[in-house]
Design brief:
This protein is α+β, with helices and mostly antiparallel strands and 282 residues long. The chain has one domain. The chain is globular, with a radius of gyration of 25 Å. This is A disintegrin and metallopeptidase domain 17b. Keywords: Disulfide bond, Integrin, Signal. One of its GO terms (biological process) is integrin-mediated signaling pathway. One of its GO terms (molecular function) is metalloendopeptidase activity.
Length: 282
């Protein structure tokens, strides 16, 4: 009976240690997070399990597939990710402009940006960025909208690979994230956005002319559905959001635009326009 008793005692001690509450240092470090989020979890980068997917068919060097899994917020995430080649235009370039106005090119690893879905969950979408020691993702499921970002973006802690994951619904000041009542634009009379000559023709024309005008309005080239962007990060963004690092600043900007593009691509505008989005040109 003594060996069995010894095993039980050791197990009880380990269980108690694993369930112990956060230390005072962690309580202080996470205090700003508790003021912003009702629920969250902090994970080490090492908790992510990543596997590269290899197929028998010929793959180009610009195409990468990964399976990534982790546990957080009382559930298991299994993500299928593939390189997102749609973020950048073909002539994309990144430059740094110094105080004298001189431009210098900066390399960007396009293989680090991914799109995908949660395995086994229909209608799910994922945008992700994977670097050597950092990971960020926006995960949309029927259950909730999850966000995963480096912890240093929210606390004064130095970059150490830890990741913060939270649901959008757990953001306390959720009003700033609420969408407008109508997707696109909301105006009682949107005709004031049209050129003066067109508005005059609408007012002076007969009902037949108005119908013809509306028919012409619908003759859009839907193949032209992507707007190229030129992004600029000022010194304040570079210093505070990018930690004073060129690569971190670039990654942050690209992540933001990737999420914007996903919102636009999955929004229908007046039941006529869909699949519209943006790409980063410079």
């Amino acid at each position: 009976m003594r060996p069995q008793l010894a095993v039980f005692v050791v197990f009880a001690v380990l269980t108690e240690a694993a369930a112990s509450p956060p230390t005072d240092a962690q309580q202080q470090e996470f205090a700003p997070l508790r003021s912003m989020l009702d629920d969250f979890e902090v994970l080490p980068f090492s908790s992510l399990q990543t596997h590269s997917v290899r197929r028998r068919d010929v793959q180009t060097e610009a195409h990468v597939e990964k399976l990534l899994s982790f546990s957080a917020l009382q559930r298991r995430f299994r993500l299928y990710l593939r390189t997102n080649n749609e973020i950048f235009t073909e002539d994309f370039r990144a430059v740094v402009v110094d105080e004298d106005g001189r431009e210098r090119g900066v390399p960007v690893n396009r293989h680090n940006y991914f799109t995908g879905h949660v395995i086994g969950e229909e209608n799910s979408r994922v945008q992700a960025h994977i670097d050597d020691d950092e990971f960020s993702a926006h995960i949309l499921t029927d259950e909730a909208e999850f966000n995963m970002e480096p912890l240093w973006r929210f606390t004064s802690a130095p970059p150490d690979g830890r990741l913060l994951i939270y649901r959008s619904e757990d953001i306390r000041n959720i009003s700033r994230l609420q969408r407008p009542a109508v997707c696109g634009y909301a105006a009682p009379d949107s005709s004031h956005y049209l050129p003066v000559s067109v508005r005059a023709a609408m007012l002076d024309g007969t009902h037949k002319d108005e119908f013809a005008f509306r028919g012409k309005r619908q003759a859009y080239d839907h193949k032209k559905n992507t707007c190229p962007l030129l992004l600029v990060a000022d010194h304040r963004f570079f210093k505070h959001m990018g930690r004073g690092e060129e690569s971190t600043t670039l990654n942050y900007l690209i992540e933001l635009i990737d999420r914007v593009d996903d919102i636009y691509r999955n929004t229908s505008w007046d039941d006529e326009f869909s699949g519209y989005g943006v790409q980063i040109q410079q």
